[in-house]
Amino acid sequence: MSGEDLVRHGRMRGVVMSTTESQAQIQLSGCGQPGTFGVSAFGPVIGQGKAPAVQTAPLRQEIGRLRRRLRQSHLDSVMALVAALEAKDPHTERHSTQVAIYAEHLATAAGIGSAEVEVLVIAALLHDIGKIAVPDAILLKPGRLTPPEFEIIKLHPARGVEILRRMGFLERELPLVLHHHEWFNGRGYPAGLSGEAIPLGARILQVADCIDAMLSPRTYKKAIGVEEAIAELHRWRGIQFDPDIADSAVAMLERQPEEALEICPGLVSALGIAAETTP
């Protein structure tokens, strides 16, 4: 580990610590936790009083670059866990990517801004990370789960939040991961929220997750067709699914089913990944 002191007029104002080329932690006086940056921190780092923009701009750009690199490194690590999780069961391979694709389509149709769409896409990619803590005997069981086994499965949203919270920069994604199994009528888990008390992003994830679950085979069931999936969306509208989001999903599938399998720009830009559509 190496460190470089930021010094002005003989006084140390901060330290830039780096561990590897791909990871860095920055701690500036007045900035709080490593990886947390604020405009107020830049003045003291450069010198007393207001510093010329020409001096602060390069440092501001470098901090932004290092922060993005650290964020990408952490996300790469978590996505490696997701890949390992999905590799356990060929039926769930690329499930998270597919849910992210559906979620972006639905969010865009709902008029959600690009920044919020990015949050939703990242939450979709990470929504099942808590299943890492579920025993394989339950996760890969070919038949129906027993009530005790299902209670263990129901812990995965909270376990996922426990894992992701340690990363320190996914605060906006955490509620979506935690509540993506809430039902519109309040019969879901883990908190039994209902209606608009469920975060909008989590309501979108609920629908997106179920679309992929219906259209894909699992160890315990066969895939169903688009028409049957549409019927299920109508059936559970206002019960499991937000009515407006369910209607949007039906319109998406009725308009052009294969459109739902296309890679969305937000999915690529959110993480810089080059995902491929399912053959």
What form results from the Cα inertia axes? globular
Radius of gyration: 22 Å
Instruction: Please indicate the percent range of residues in DSSP E strands (runs of 2 or more).
Output: 5-15%
Q: Mean of residue pLDDT?
A: 77
Backbone structural class: mainly alpha
Number of strands: 3
Major sheet: size, sense and barrel closure?
3 strands, antiparallel
Could you list the spans in which at least 5 consecutive residues all have pLDDT below 50? 1-48, 263-279
Portion of residues within helices: 40-55%
Distance between the termini: 45 Å
Overall description:
The chain has 279 residues and is mostly helical. Helices cover 50% and strands 8% of the residues. The protein has helices at 42-46, 53-87, 95-109, 114-126, 136-139, 147-153, 156-165, 174-178, 200-215, 226-235, 243-255, 265-271, and strands spanning 2-8, 11-20, 23-28. The protein has a three-stranded antiparallel sheet. α3 (95-109) runs antiparallel to α4 and α10 (226-235) runs antiparallel to α11. The radius of gyration is 22 Å and the shape is globular.
